[in-house]
Amino acid sequence: MLVLLGLLLLGACAAAPPDTRPDEKSTRLGTSWGEGLESNVSTVSLRRKSDTALSVQTLHYSAARGDGEVLREVQAADGRVGLRVLRENGTAWPIYRRDGVERLQGRSGERYTLQYRNYSRTRTYEIVATVDGLDVLSGRPGSLGNRGYVLRPGAIFQIKGFRKSSSEVAAFRFASVDDSYAANSAAGSRSNTGVIGTAVFELTAPAPSGQPRCGEAPCAFPENGDGPGSGYAPPPSYR
Known about the structure:
Layout: H1 24-27, E1 30-38, E2 55-62, E3 69-71, E4 74-76, E5 81-86, E6 95-98, E7 101-105, E8 111-118, E9 125-131, E10 134-135, E11 149-151, E12 156-159, E13 161-163, E14 168-175, E15 195-202
Parallel strand pairs: 2-7
Antiparallel strand pairs: 1-14, 2-15, 3-6, 4-5, 5-8, 6-7, 8-12, 8-14, 9-10, 9-11, 9-15, 13-14
Protein name: Lipoprotein
Region (Disordered): 208-239
Signal peptide: 1-15
């Protein structure tokens, strides 16, 4: 954040300098439907232990300069799950925390990966992730009722893009809002660009329903619902 300091002059009052901070519109980013990357998955028969998520978190991102405490990893589920956002070279993007809000400074055109780590030695978790309000598995509006990825005890896994099939994803790349997947998908909304959502459930019993309300803010899980998403994410339809 740019701070402007006023100078008090004896006998005269200096004119206040113009506010040169970039406005929110000029620094907004979304995530595009990137190149196809190999990523193989299979299904398992596991159930949620509770219909309530252990944690639901939103990580905001934009091109705005970072401000606040610098983190390399954010934690969920009382510290049992860690999230890093990785650059293409494998290093962690810095995440800035101020007043309890976590933000990432992205760069248009750069690829990123969501990396989750399970610090528990005994518990298995389900990770339901969204980017720009869209479920990364199905491309549908994010819902806590959608099914996610399984994170086994002590394991690390990476989500590299929107899932196109059981063997391929479309890479996550920071982009302008106009070029984002959310802006060019029938299920997406430009108003939800700039957020990465993570919901964590412990596995073994019934599936949940419902979601937190977001009001006027960008929403990581914008849709109510209690059923799993069907199929995988469809490609964008550019205007």
